[in-house]
Design goal:
heterotrimer, A: 200 residues, mainly alpha, Four Helix Bundle (Hemerythrin (Met), subunit A), 5 helices, 72% helix, elongated, B: 638 residues, Cytochrome C Oxidase, Chain A, two-stranded antiparallel ribbon, 19 helices, 62% helix, 3% strand, globular
Amino acid sequence: MKSRIVLDVSKLPLHGMGNASLTWWGTCAFMLIEGSGFALAIAVYFYLMSMAPEWPINAPAPDLWAGTWLTILLVASVIPNILVSSWAGKSDLRKVRIGLVVMSLMGILPLALRIFEFPALHILWDQNAYGSITWVLLGLHTTHILTDLIDTLVLACLMFSKHADNPRRYGDVEDNALYWNFVVVAWLPIYACIYWVPRL
Amino acid sequence: MTGVDRISPDVLDLDLQDAEVERHLSRTWGTSPGFWGAIATVDHKVIARRYIATAFVFLILGGLLALAMRLQLARPESRLIDPDRYNQIFTMHGTNMMFLFAVPVMGAMAIYLVPLMVGTRNVAFPRLNAFSYWIFLIGGSLLWLSFALDAAPDVGWFAYVPLSGPQYSPGKRTDLWAQMITFTEVSALAIAIEVVVTVFKQRAPGMSLDRIPVLVWAMVVMSFQVIMAMPSIMFASTTLILDRLVGTQFYNPAEGGDALLWQHLFWFFGHPEVYIIFLPAVGMVSSMLPTFVGRPIFGYLALVMALITTGILSFGLWVHHMFVVGLPRMGESFFTASSMAIAVPAGIQIFCWLATLWLGRPVFRVPLLFIIGFIVTFVMGGMTGVMVASVPFDTQVHDTYFVVAHFHYVLVGGAVFPLLGAIYYWFPKMTGRMMSETLGRWAFGLIFVGFHLTFFPMHILGLQGMPRRIYTYQPELPWSGLNLFISISSLILALGFLVFFVDVLRSWRHGLPAGPNPWGASTLEWATPSPPPPYNFLRIPVVQDRNPLRPEDKELPVAAGLRVDRRELLVTSVVEALPEARESSPQNSIWPFWAALATSFMLVWSIFSPWAVVWGAIPVAVALIAWFWPKGTPEDEA
Amino acid sequence: MQSAWDAQGHSAEVLKHLMLGIIGVCTLIWLLVVLMLFAALVKRRGQAPLQGEHAERKTRLVVYLSVAVTTIIVAGLTLASFFATRDLVVGRDMDLTVRIKGQQWWWQVTYEGSSFGPRFQTANELHIPVGRNVRLELESIDVIHSFWVPSLAGKQDMIPGRMNVLTLRAERPGVYRGQCAEFCGLQHSHMALMVVAQDDDQYRRWAQAQALDAAVPDDTEVQAGRAVFMRKPCAACHTVRGTEAQGSSGPDLTHVGGRRTIAAGLLETTRGSLAAWTADPQTLKPGTNMPIVPLTSEELQQVSAYMETLK
């Protein structure tokens, strides 16, 4: 079939930012998948709770300090995270570099605190269903932090490499920041489940 | 890798003649020859063809298992197959047909057709697409390997605990099943993401939401269902493995766990799963039908709304697989009502197709025959669906051959018939050659008649009290006659499929050349040559109508201004499809293959040791970093 | 004998009427759709297809109407199911309570004490008085099973860690076969049970006889069989009330000779089938939990003679 040119797209930008970027949508889809997973895990938590005569089963409620400090830390990390994102939006390479280093630390610190969370549960995964779901919730979220941390570290390395000054990279930084916000938001209901629901 | 003999950068197709554009695009988008070129390709058409072919191989294998079961059930107390092997066979049949055939083949059709139908050059994440196929291939092969070694799962495709738990299924069979589920989940989720983003962001300029072909809508709804439903089975299969491997207590009632939790999780995925298979099939019907009646589809908006409604409702039905587990009366009434309610959007679609046929002039080619067979068969499956949706009715037929009949009517009648029609319809596009009209009629006739003779009597057997999943039955029960009849009829059905496959193989080599648009269809995939070149469209089409290829048009309106020396495609806005950016599309890469191998290694190892998740993750991370690390190609420029 | 159409119990009859109604309505709808389909296929052969607002208007009206009718029918069927479920309830008064425990691959049946007789245990055969409401308490000790006697009532799952209740009321005397309906492993196919519905007197006599201990043999061969049974591993798994055999992992054999079938409906009870089963259970029912117990042919004779007398 013959074709007739009716539209010239040569003036369009070579990479869309924000929701004109494919990776932004990919990140959103990924968050939707994980969000469904977390919602489901929490649903299972309440399902098992509704089956049990007492909750927690044969264990005291978890100690609060490690989880609570971790929560404070995560919530606080949102501020530098948003800053990095806006610097990336302005293509400010120097600030983005600093920001990514800070965010790498903001990823490592919660993992250090997480080590103290598992013993604070006062139950093992194989003792009963309460222990199992609590460990799985905590484990899932640990994986979550870990994957974003690795992503942040790789991005930080990239931003110090020759590939750095590129709108595509700044887009990646923004998407990574978006994902970290999700890591933080997803933690809040899990924190409530693990630490406060057993105290109800 | 392309890029050798590169032309000067920033060459736009605006400045070049068509032949020149074609030459450059072929080099930029092509797949390198040789083994590694084949492994590294990210061309959605190549991957989709592999996907479809692999899925059909699994269909053949699953069909052979079905024949083996029919052989065993032909006579009472037959000792051809022992119970252990029989349990493996029906578990494999179900698992294979659902996870290795039906879901992947629908996803594969999506990754072949969606980019062509929305007028773009590749899917949104081409490397993820390649990764998805390798994961699917490895997972499926592993499952069949276990069957060959007489170590296949034997607890049913639903793997109910506690039968599948550590106490009653020792050994690794069930772990293998659960992990194979993870493989297929990962590949299905990858496809879902690609489809959603491709449709949202890569539609041809002007293809606003109300101009998207119905099939593409169906694929979008299917993808969202995958995204929402698959995490459920992933959580279920992972916790099952944990229960079996490290002693968690999710499903152990003695330690606060619950056997029914598994069923809730499984069916929260399992019911949408049916629609994950079915919606693409009805989308195919809606997209093929206009071609054979000479007029656009009747009730486009109603059809799209029905698809979306079905997609949403499908998440409120899972309990109707659990009507006899002893749930509260209130819940039963709610789920009866919701299960019945899904008949309404299904009805809307049927009526729209009937109206399309009524207003049009039918041309009886093979795809239309399959559509007619589909309507006749699927409506029957829908009717028995209404029956099992009623809790009291279901208490008499649940887990009997009545249900076996019902879901084969829905899945074979409702999904495989349209799929076969779709293969006849799009085969010319995929290969450049037509399939045989004569063999096609034979295939349709044999499959249609063989199917009904095989599955209709199962309704009666079910009502006569024959339960599912039994490897034999006693001679004094009144089931032998019908069972023998079914077994013989299944040979007719098998013969029909044989004719179909012969036709496919023959037409592949010797079919008549098809030309770009042999059916006179009106959707964009027919604007490309058959088979389409690696870059799909020489120039991206501009869409001005819901049916962009109207017969009266002599010219295709297109957009120009894309680079030809790097993979570039158009990103458009979600609602109006207004051009937003000229985005680059990733080059071929070997890393998705390595990432898939590393992931498979980790998943299989984790059946044996929980530490696999830690150590096995390292090669996965390495492969992923190599995958994403910029290689300094023109695609990385912006 | 095992069919939803051969309704001999209150529930099965209610269900049968509901099923006939729904199947009738659905068949009618299917015929209408297929009729419409073929009418549409032949109607415009050779004519140009219709397009445009004008042509579609009338068709659209018909489609609207069809959707409305579909909705009404679906609502009607939902209501019909709801009322049928309500009719299944036979009243609150239970004449008899029986606890049935499903296990791989047989049924343990325990009768609670009632006006008909004291508490006792049996297996794979359920006797009920005709016209009485019998409360079944369904449990499982291993995997999920499902209790289903189609001629009497719809099925109900037996789930470990939970108890489900099903009410049976047989309207006519007879023997009704049932079979496990949830896949439960290797011998899911051979997990049947017989329900014997009898009038009150017959049932009472049966129940009182079942509650008695096993008969003491006077025949020498039977006595020898009993000795073999006690000496060999048999007694470790089976109970014969009134003897030292107190095992509980296999069926209670106190009155096994009086039951219609052995091995959960696998074989008719005869001396020959008892011998065959004892000699080689793994061939008759591959995977069953009953092991092969090495016996000489003489011991086998004696044991089967003993089993046969346990009426």
